[in-house]
Amino acid sequence: MRYTFDTSEVDSGRRGFTLGVAALGGLSVAPGIFLYHSASAKPADQPVSNKQRWGMLVNTNVCQEDCSACVTACNEENGLWSLGRPATDAQWIRKLNVKDRQTGHVTSLPMMCQHCEHPPCVDVCPTKASFRREDGIVLVNKHTCIGCRYCMMACPYKARSFIHEPLYEQLPHSPRGKGCVESCTLCVHKVDRGDNNTACAEACAKDGHEALVFGDLNDPHSEISRLLEKHGGSQIRADLGLNTGVRYQGI
């Protein structure tokens, strides 16, 4: 039987400037760095479509407790450099080790934005800066984010970070900004250029664990769909009815 899915402070000057440039294609924040207003980096003749729904499958049975290859790869791919203040450093993906108090068994798993079909972060955003693309990827528009952090409070997965400090040495494909909220993008820049994989999944495979599988949930022939059909998969907080794009095996 096929496994199917249901379809740092922001001052008034910045807000005014944001509104003034919202219609532009990009905003330069540093030499060579642009905050793109468009929801997609794909060419105009290749629009994002709901024919795909990108997602991730995590096999906790092979995820190693002492491995953080996915976290390192995400940080390097998106330029998440530590500012020396761990309490406020951005985390787009983090490792959790959950211990069963009765048996002592430890389950290790990565936690990131779950790319929900019905994302609470989008529902509460007053400026619609949080949005969901047609292909299921949930993103934040840095132009219209006012740093209110309602989305951080609404996210049941604690998957979003707030940028408190000025940022330097940003990567052109992953622009970031002080006073904005951010989270895992499922490496949208790689998806849009046709890689169809994420840095974390590539690093996990290179490390020999292959605990992460990225792919199109709407394609019954994709690896992720075949694995879900064969072994099933669970949602974290399935009771919320969010229909997450990230599924887990072994929990």
Structure write-up:
There is one protein chain. By secondary structure, this protein is of the alpha+beta class. The protein has a single domain, classed as Alpha-Beta Plaits, CATH 3.30.70. Helix content is 21%, strand content 19%. It contains seven helices and eleven strands. It has helices at residues 12-21, 69-78, 120-124, 150-154, 188-192, 199-206, 223-231; strands spanning 26-30, 33-36, 54-59, 93-99, 106-112, 130-132, 138-140, 161-162, 181-182, 212-216, 246-249. It has a three-stranded mixed sheet with strand order 10-3-11. The chain has a two-stranded antiparallel sheet with strand order 1-2. Strands 4-5 form a two-stranded antiparallel ribbon. Strand 6 and strand 7 form a beta hairpin. Helix 2 crosses helix 6. The protein is globular, with a radius of gyration of 18 Å.
In angstroms, what separates the terminal alpha carbons? 21 Å
What is the number of independent domains? 1
Per CATH, the class reads Alpha Beta
Query: Main β-sheet, in a few words?
Result: 3 strands, mixed
Low-confidence spans: 1-41
Radius of gyration: 18 Å
Return the structural class. alpha+beta
The CATH topology corresponds to Alpha-Beta Plaits
Helicity level:
10-25%
Strand sequence of the main sheet, in spatial order?
A: 10-3-11
The number of helical segments is: 7
Order of helices and strands: HEEEHEEHEEHEEHHEHE
Shape verdict: globular
Task: Round the mean pLDDT to the nearest integer and report it.
Answer: 85
Give the name of the CATH architecture: 2-Layer Sandwich
**Beta-strand level of the residues, as a percent range?**
15-25%
Number of strands: 11
